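Example with several molecule types.
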Amino acid sequence: MTESPYSGLEPRAFWSSGVAEKSPLAMDDLYHRKFGIRKSEAIATAGSCFAQHIARNLKGRSFNVMQMEPAPAGLSEQSAKDRSFGIYTCRFGNIYTPAQLLQLAREALDGLAPAEPIWEKNGRFYDAQRPGVEPNGWATAEEAMLARRFHLRNVAEMFMEMDVFVFTFGLTEAWIHRETGTVYPTAPGNIAGAFDPEVYAFHNYTHSETIDAFSSFLKLMRAHRGRRLKCIITVSPVPLTATACGDHVLSASTYSKSVLRGVCGELSQRNKMIDYYPSYELITAPSSRGIFYERNLRSVSAPGVENAMRVFLNEHDPRGGATTPQQATKDHEREQAGDDLVCEEILLEAFNK
Amino acid sequence: MTSNLCVIGNSHVAALKDGWPPLDGLAHHVRADFFGCLKDGMKSFGEVGGKLGPCEPEAAAFFKGISMTGDFVVPEQYEAFVLTGMKFFPNYLFRNYADFATPSTNNHAFARQFVSDETLIEALWDELKDGMMLHTARTLRAHTDAPIFIVWQPFLSEVLMQIGWREALYSPIIEAVDGAFITRIMAGLDQHLEAEGFQILRQPQETIKDGVMTDQRYSEGSKQFREGGGGEHRALDVFHMNAAFGRACWEHWFSKGALRRAFPTLAYKENEQAAA
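Resulting structure tokens for the full complex:
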């Protein structure tokens, strides 16, 4: 018999010693990996904006980050980024919700056909599921569809070949097709297409819907692959740019992140092959007093990213040393430039008038 | 009255020099000086004592010697400039072909990705925009308002088909009859070049084989770019063209188009001859 189940617990179990009295730069004991990643294992990355940092840092440490749709040789880094090359394993742009991830997997592996697949703007045609990847769109809807077929072939290959899947949960808010439930990464009318309330509707995914979507995704992977898949899941610490749910954006963001954090917790507790990496906590901890955000209190600052990634890499590559100096310098310059991430959601700020 | 034309480049100047003058009587109206450096010498092209030439000493000596002027370029002495070679060639366009299909290509059956033509035009521009050719052209533009013509480096000679890895690179394009696609993407740079005040000259259609190579007749016996005339390139040289190529280019460029318009006096004389 002990006095209390709390007696004898590690300092990390108590708020005062685990958070309040601790430097936000020394929160390394916040994360203990569930499983290792061998450098030979094929890592696929997808998700919300923050996942881009994970992919880049893993590449910097020579992990086998898959690149199924690399940029054409000659294309500059900036031009490649403008066209969503090299950001994730495939050129799918940001996948903000598990519902969209599940839909993509079904489309690539089971031939699901999303509704309203092509959006038009000024006589050009855009892939509604990744409207930002071709900045000027396509000359015809047929071209846009052909591009999607090529893309799906690569996505299917990614799903079949990956050993580790890194996914960052970004949002619960999405726009869906009323009749079919097809989900889109951005509202029609933001980049292309037109918003028709008779056709499209706002949807704010609940905890159960979110966990069901990701669980269905895992089930689909098991059915097609016949071998285990390691998943590392995170929640993006980047708040919502805007909400359409009717609440204050702070409440909406808190709801969204709370649901996603809860879903990740449950997924991680239930499945030994799913590891939750707490990038969200590392950036948002009260002890950091907002220092890991830029002045817009939304974008994660370069030191914030560096701190979060250090904790991750200390667990997964403790003997890896620093990211190569050349790479680190390039990353820093990019981040200083303030246009580091490719994020369709930030375009919503343009409607703030 | 004689007009003056200045040709600048790297080893590719030799074909244009050996093919000059192209037309009977042209030499009476247009006098040409041929400047250049070997390899990457033109990278150091800049202003030297109010004239233009390579800053790097070895390249500078070659540049002065090869022109037979013994001097650098004095921009105000010329009515027009033709820039050639200097790695202004769509290398990556050929290397990307097997992996990237576009709405304009016939390689949909085997390419891994489908991208817009604009994406490959942008890749080509990114490849060339800070290269030796545009460095030279921009340096010139800063010192003259005269027309500056940029010449694409010729397509590789068809002898490339005798070189295993080059044959492997080109065969899919030739078999898919995608020469028009390659030309289309190259033409996509016109807008960028014209925005900077440059005009573009292309090799004549008659010199092109299978849309993406230069007919061997225009490469065999090509001469090295050397003071006093160089020896022949090796038999499997794929890059350099001969005097017949140079002559075909000049005749094509002078018979119509922008280069002719750069010499109004020539146009008058030609018309006069035609009337006669």
